[in-house]
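Service request form, structural biology core

Requester: graduate student, group of Dr. S.
Request type: structure prediction, single chain
Budget code: on file
Notes: please return the result as structure tokens.

Sequence provided:
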Amino acid sequence: MVELDGMLSIVMPAYNEEKLIYQSIMKTLDIVSGFVREIELIAVNDGSKDNTKAEILRAVRKDKRVRLVTSDKNRGKGNAIISGVSQAEGKYIAFVDADLELNPAQLEGYLKKMLDDNADVVIGCKFHKGSKLKYPFKRKVISMCYYIMLIILFHLNVKDTQTGLKVFKAEAIKPVGHLIRTSGFAYDIELLVAVHRRGFKIAEMPVEVVFVRDKGVNRIGIKDCVRAFADTWAIFARVYFKHYYD
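Core staff response, request fulfilled:
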């Protein structure tokens, strides 16, 4: 067991995940219960048009550790994450994607890293030498581009912001949650930049990623890349011209 001095809150955002969400919730609880004594799972329905909300409610009825946060409109993953964080009651807060491409069993090592290194944030890094990837080449290229932008624009000493598996101390993420204005793919950058600007320590861990999506599902297109690029420059302006996160 990982000897935490408080509860672990797991935030799982979901948009149109009716086929996956119930099993993902139950599997996550089963796995994480093996190494953390006190947990809660906050499933965030981001304005889904299918039966995602109903499937989450089915999990709520099944296990009292599950809580639902829901929105009538699709507001983007960033907003969904922050909505879940705002409702989290744990001293530690983890992010897990609903498709479980990143097995939540990896959180055990992340939490141990946090305790051993006295880190405030531990994030997955696809470029870590210990990472194991079964991932589309296109997604690897996009991640590398983000890495280059991080070095040039923010001097942020992390190689990968986009991997969905992350753990924060609540004291690091709670005070900056309301500052996050990006809801698209660049929200990870804004969140980590905000935390970094407040002097919190960020550590990286290897990840094992298994790409599980069917062809055509949850694809990242040109419009998404353009928006992420624009959002990143907006974050740059907030950092260096407005000192928004300081």
